[in-house]
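Notes to self after the Tuesday call (sharing in case useful).
The group wants a holo model before anyone commits to mutagenesis around the pocket. I volunteered. Ligand is inosinic acid. Logging inputs and output together so the record is complete.
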Amino acid sequence: MFAGDTVPCTVVVGGFWGDEGKGKIISYLALKDAVDVCIRTGSVNAAHTIWYKGKRYALHMVPGGFVHKKCRLLVGPGTNVHVGQFLKEVKMTEVKNRIGVDRQASIIEEKHSALDKSNAHLKGLGTTGWGVGPAIEERVRRTAKLAKDTLELKPYLTDVAEEANNAITEGKNVILEGTQGIMLSLFYGTYPYVTGRDTSASAICSEAGVGPSKVDEVLVVFKAFMTRVGAGPLPGEISKEEAEKRGWFEVAAGTGRDRRSAPFDFGVAEKAVTIHSATQAAVTKLDCIYPECKDVKKFDELPKKAKLFISRVEHRTKIPVVLVGTGPDAADIIDRRK
Ligand code: IMP
Ligand code: MG
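Result:
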């Protein structure tokens, strides 16, 4: 496959409670498909972890496509921008000359974080404490500060919907980078133990300014097991000790909190595929449940039980598993696309 063969517009979304490895998948696609434009949605609460050339990046604002040096990076109008974090990451990833922020994106401020941390209800939900709920409340009240009113963002301001739609019309490769997972959706998740917005593929398109008829693929990312941080139900949850024994125990990239974990749930996966209208799936961290998979790059070289697991995911969700993660680096992937 070469870059010209790929589909122009792909939405990448989460199939569980976030932390499925969307950052890794996006970084792989950006490099492999020479993606032209990558658009971040959501807010600073979602950290996308990317391992590239031995270095780990936990990005809260900069799109995961930054690893491809020619990729234009955009932060969509539906996002809540944390100015300090944005500037810090722009510097760290050295993307000053190729990143833009939509004029209408709203700004998340210190006061929102303070409210998030001091409110007993929000604390009970186990929010990340970044203030995303309160920032969205303020936006809905129509008193929020916008990117266009922010001096530090002046050099970055753009019209993301216009750039995105032009790129798609020109046949360029565009990724809409979803955040979190369907089970944290304000509409479809385990309410009230959810985030402050919808996280479905439709919502990601809306936050980026791209309509459904422009989307070619909806790629849902699953991890080979499930995790969640914060409070709320997690079907099949195992203890921390058991998770450690199985090699599944994780710490949140954003907040440093312990991630709770459970085996892959096919019912949840089916629901995710339905609501996202996903056309293809990725399964990450297969090496965490089958250590013999580590660094394998060809599907045929996987152990039989790992292949069976992937077949079962395909059978239950009725969509192909096109990408399989076998290690942390952007390059540790089995690519089954034609
Ligand atoms: P909030 O989004 O900070 O309001 O937190 C609401 C819930 O969503 C909490 O359970 C958080 O742990 C969870 N959450 C928010 N963002 C992420 C994420 O990027 N990954 C995993 N969980 C998240
Ligand atoms: Mg994360």
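Two things stood out.
Residues 17-19, 45-47, 125-128, 130, 132-133, 179-180, 184, 193, 195-196, 229-230 surround inosinic acid (ligand 1) (CB under 6 Å).
The first helix runs from residue 22 to 32.
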